[in-house]
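Record pair follows.
FIRST:
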Amino acid sequence: MYYQSINGQAEQHLSINNRGLAYGDGVFTTAKVVNGHVALLSAHIERLTRSCETLNIPLPDMDDVTCELIAVAQRYALSVAKIIITMGDGGRGYSRQGCLTSNVIITFHDFPKHYADMQQQGIHLGVSSLKLGVNPLLSGIKHLNRLEQVLIRQEVDNREEDDLLVLNYFDDIIEASAANVFWLKDNCWYTPQLNESGVEGLMRNHILQCCNNDRKIMVVKEKLLGLKDIDAMFICNSVMGIMPIRQFQNQPLALIPCHEMIKFIQDVK
């Protein structure tokens, strides 16, 4: 870890009464830092703001958060920034009564060095045996309750594939273990609806915005059978960017359309 702070101070410890620890009462976002700048910074700040408002978490001074991120990011050519906002201490049981403030935790970490090679070579994607719950209230929010993802990641670690596609209990395609998914079929890119399950990733939204007028792309509700005879596929998040899939289950896939998408997104101003 390069850097860490709590509420703007060089602290390492939170109270054992913190509600983020006790109940997962909080939200977070993870960003790529390139050449001293936090990529998609305004989108990350907007996500945190919107998520806190949705969950009725007192909003910290986001100008202070932004200034700290900008200042610290200047130290690093390539790293990963993580911002966590939790409810503070107080309340009894699940009740927030008496808890009037939030905490902001900012950390900077090493960037995963293997991502560059994986992006060129592509990865093998399987299908998880676990299924995501359906909760429209929390769908799309990157909250601190990540037990589903912990269990899915545990399954990934015990499988031969590099990552796993995850469905929800309606058998709708949702996402990978920690990334959104896109696939190409008949010259159109598709990505799942996330109004019932999953996380609405910033890179997913960035791709949708970039492709809005220039490339055919659709947000759909799709079952696993809909991935039969696809031409290409990638997963994405704001840290690793676009990660091409060279093989989905037993099906080899083309990498060129994914690399073309990577270049297209990089060229969009």
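SECOND:
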Amino acid sequence: MGNEAKFCTCTDLKCPNHPTNHDKGCTPCIQKNLSQGEIPACFFKKANPDKKPDAYFFEDFAKIV
């Protein structure tokens, strides 16, 4: 899978949208999250690497930035 995002910080390797599980990079993850009104986990990890959020909605991200 040569097109995975080398910088991906997501630890959910079982997720079918994780870049290591296909050759489409971050696109499937971002599409899935946007369609559900969520933000990808990597954004949360960048903003606050020590805390796992309760949920991944825009409102939850706004609370930590």
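COMMENT: The chain has a mean pLDDT of 91.
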